[in-house]
Amino acid sequence: MEVVAIRALAKRYAGRRVIDGFEMHVPQGAIYGFVGKNGAGKSTVMKMIAGLVTPTDGEITLFGGQTPDVRRIGVLIEHPGLLPNLNAYDMMMTQAIAFGVTKPKTACRDLLAQVGLGETGRKPIKGFSLGMKQRLGIALALLGGPDLLLLDEPLNGLDPEAARAMRNSLVELNQTRGITIVISSHVLDQLERMCTHYGVIASGRMTREMTAGDVERECGQSLRVRTAEPAKSLALLEDAIGADGVRFVAEPDGSIIVSGAFSADRIAAILHEHGQEVREMSRQAKDMEDYFVSLMEPSAR
């Protein structure tokens, strides 16, 4: 089942389309990294999924078309609305009572412990670090036992230790409670360590959706081949092994980039058999950051 399915979504502000023809598909149980530059439309999409902003056009379907109880969706968008003079437990209790949470005291203590804030005692929130405030925001979003967690830039401003703690908490929630998580972020190195799926937005449109396996394959080893007759070499290789999970891209400089399940020895043998003069054959790996940055460009669609 797709927990989030979006079709032809659009949003206009003052006559300007900030989201246009947007599509998204989030499978149940995924940790979905929603990636894009600042201003690309990530927050607007997240707010529309959460029901905080009304779309101009298009359709958002949650939980396969069921009418969801609002408690099935936990939201942390931008900064959590925290009362600075309260401590973490009292802040949690205030929201738990408003939500009508069963056994609120137990629920609040358990969630605070789960996000690593169980020992903060009476310390007021105004004395919390940014990482502690973000984790408290996630604990608040988890009140009511949501099946979908929407997190907008939860890693922003966190130091490496706090980011690691946040990442570990989210993975544990996903694995132990089966919560589907959508995280909008541009902190790619952290997303790489926890996401099972990705979507990339550029100028209000989805340019690509893929699994972590897709990213790993496309950022893995590739082979650069340069020959005296690149067009002929490309045709020979496509005819010989193009149906075997091997992909070819002709570069403007005349080289051929080979990726997928290729064998360099097999490629060399094919070219030799057909009298192709090989001028270069070198292995290369694509940097993940460069890969995503290229997808963030509007022309990548």
UniProtKB/TrEMBL annotation:
GO terms for molecular function: ATP binding; ATP hydrolysis activity. Residues 4-228 form the ABC transporter domain. PROSITE patterns: ABC_TRANSPORTER_1 (PS00211), ABC_TRANSPORTER_2 (PS50893). InterPro entries: AAA+_ATPase (IPR003593), ABC_transporter-like_ATP-bd (IPR003439), ABC_transporter-like_CS (IPR017871), P-loop_NTPase (IPR027417). Keywords: ATP-binding, Nucleotide-binding, Transport. Pfam families: ABC_tran. SUPFAM superfamilies: P-loop containing nucleoside triphosphate hydrolases. Belongs to the ABC transporter superfamily. This is ABC transporter.
